[in-house]
Input
Amino acid sequence: AQSVTQLDSQVPVFEEAPVELRCNYSSSVSVYLFWYVQYPNQGLQLLLKYLSGSTLVESINGFEAEFNKSQTSFHLRKPSVHISDTAEYFCAVNYGGATNKLIFGTGTLLAVQP
Amino acid sequence: NAGVTQTPKFQVLKTGQSMTLQCAQDMNHEYMSWYRQDPGMGLRLIHYSVGAGITDQGEVPNGYNVSRSTTEDFPLRLLSAAPSQTSVYFCASSDRDGDGYTFGSGTRLTVV
Output
């Protein structure tokens, strides 16, 4: 079955510390991978995506994610977080085929503390 | 360029009432979908459509109906609202490649 797993429901971290948010997906031949961010009481914003090519993708605000096919993972990292990064982060996968369904993980709340 | 437009933004219903959540996109996207977001459960797919006249069920379709008479519009109908349908609903669209999804701003629905 197609699934996306975000094991950490909450990740507390101090400001300026590094953070990693984990995402694993069920194996498939080829996938498109996405990270979305949702700030409190707002909609979803695309943070970054992997479609093909370089396995390391970056966002404009310092986040990066690495596609690891052998481990079926797409973990999100940032070397130094800010208070403003406090939000919920969702990993999502398009397993392809005729339907283009986008399957989401359950989300990780990143809580940055001063 | 409006993207994906959802209406209304907020709605309160009484149990048993019916209503339609509207979703429209102006990008000529073939694929459209509806999700509901509940705390701790992420976004779960309700129904989706791969083109006008074609719809299918997602993960949590019970209690919801959809239709796709045009490429632009994909309304979600609640025939008899239940408190369990209290949620935030998001509509999304994508082109055929599925390499980028545009989301609406959401509808916060409360059923009392």
Notes: The first strand of chain B starts at residue 4 and ends at 7. Chain B touches chain A through 26 residues (CB under 8 Å). The mean pLDDT of chain B is 95.
